[in-house]
């Protein structure tokens, strides 16, 4: 799977932005259509797996990890276009999906981006 879905398992450098009181690290490279979320969900169910979604800060001093499991890949979340993986006080991973671009993949969903949102301001 790692060989066939290299785009999902390779490092994807982030670009940082700020929106309101949130610092966001956006994936800077596009993901391909190597495996749909529907296919991935079937494989995860069959082998009782989950997918680690991680981010490492640009200075490599800290990292954060969230787990994506089959409960996140339900029809509602896929049709909504994203799923949020809460990290407690550490932030939120947002995995976004888009429908396939080819005739045979138009009803399937693929990862389009993975962004990490960090609250930079806490109200007192």
Radius of gyration of CA atoms, rounded to a whole number? 15 Å
Low-confidence stretches: none
How many distinct beta strands?
A: 7
Q: Oligomeric state of the chains? A: single chain
Fraction in beta strands:
35-45%
User: How far apart lie the N and C ends?
Assistant: 47 Å
> How many structural domains can be distinguished in the coordinates?
1
Helix percentage? 10-25%
Average pLDDT for all residues: 83
Any idea what the shape is? globular
Protein traits:
two-stranded antiparallel sheet, 124 residues, 3 helices, 5-stranded antiparallel sheet, alpha+beta, globular
Molecular structure report:
The structure is a single chain. The longest helix has 11 residues, at 37-47. Helix content is 17%, strand content 39%. It contains three helices and seven strands. The protein has 124 residues and is of the alpha+beta class. The mean pLDDT is 83. The strands form two sheets. Strands 1-2-7-6-5 form a five-stranded antiparallel β-sheet. A two-stranded antiparallel ribbon has the order 3-4. The protein has one domain (6-119). It is globular, with a radius of gyration of 15 Å.
Topology, element by element:
Blueprint: H1 6-9, E1 14-19, E2 22-27, H2 37-47, E3 51-56, E4 63-68, H3 75-80, E5 82-86, E6 92-99, E7 109-119
Antiparallel strand pairs: 1-2, 2-7, 3-4, 5-6, 6-7
Can you summarize this structure?
The chain contains 3 helices and 7 strands; from the N terminus they run αββαββαβββ. The protein has helices spanning 6-9, 37-47, 75-80; strands at residues 14-19, 22-27, 51-56, 63-68, 82-86, 92-99, 109-119.
């Amino acid at each position: 799977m790692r060989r066939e879905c290299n785009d999902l398992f390779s490092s994807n450098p982030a670009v940082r932005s700020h929106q309101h009181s949130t610092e966001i690290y956006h994936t800077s490279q596009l993901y391909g259509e190597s495996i749909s979320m529907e296919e991935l969900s079937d494989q995860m169910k069959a082998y009782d797996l989950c997918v680690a979604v991680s981010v490492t800060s640009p200075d490599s001093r800290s990292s954060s990890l969230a787990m994506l499991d089959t409960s996140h890949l339900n029809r509602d979340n896929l049709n909504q276009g994203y799923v949020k993986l809460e990290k407690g006080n550490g932030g939120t991973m947002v995995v976004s999906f888009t429908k396939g671009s080819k005739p045979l993949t138009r009803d399937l969903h693929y990862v389009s981006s993975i962004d990490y949102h960090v609250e930079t301001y806490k109200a007192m």
